[in-house]
Design a protein that fits this description.
Layout (H helix, E strand, L loop, with lengths): L1 E7 L4 H9 L5 E7 L5 H9 L3 E3 L5 H7 L4 E4 L8 H4 L4 E5 L11 H8 L3 E8 L9 E8 L6 H24 L6 H5 L15
Bound molecules: glycinamide ribonucleotide.
Length: 197
Amino acid sequence: MKKIVVMGSGNGSNFEAIVKYFQNYDLKILCVSDSSESGILKLAQRLGIENRYLPFEQNDSFFRDNNFELGVLAGYMRILTEQTLTCCNFINIHPSLLPAFKGKDAIKRAYDYGVKVSGVSIHHVSSELDGGKIIAQYPVFLDETMNLSEFEQAIHDVEHALYPPVIKCILENKLFSFDMFLRQDNQGCGGCGGCKH
Ligand code: GAR
């Protein structure tokens, strides 16, 4: 059975979307966090997913000792070291159209800047902040009626719809296809909310 690890420091909403998407697949998911009090660890407990607090300094030995098919960063707020990056294939999700708005609070910074199009990026992880080659992106359009919390919600809806199928493609050694993403239901729409505006 393939084994992946989801790494997060925050709430874990992307982790939850991943767990739900893969519940009927033959895939073992482990959850780790660099913050012992993080919501993602509590959520993992509630969902019955194996989880542990993993101090940043222990990443190297942990990834050397475990053989994961994929390391999935979902709100993990530290930059992995070059050494850790040699131990596993890591991907990350970021709530902007990279390379714009790297770093923390990307949604609010994009909103405050007055962007008319933002979105979600999924990318390979490098030792640069939100760096690494892009795997998939999806837009979220803003109009003048949209407030910040509606924009945040639209971004998170896209994240939760986009990350799991992209992970699935990587695990199956396939290229991610938007055709598949857009046709998840019979109405030709993945329901991610990105095209609503
Ligand atoms: C997500 O919006 C993710 O894109 C972002 O953190 C949030 C985690 O939410 N990641 C970054 O900003 C990475 N630079 P979650 O814990 O509810 O999944």
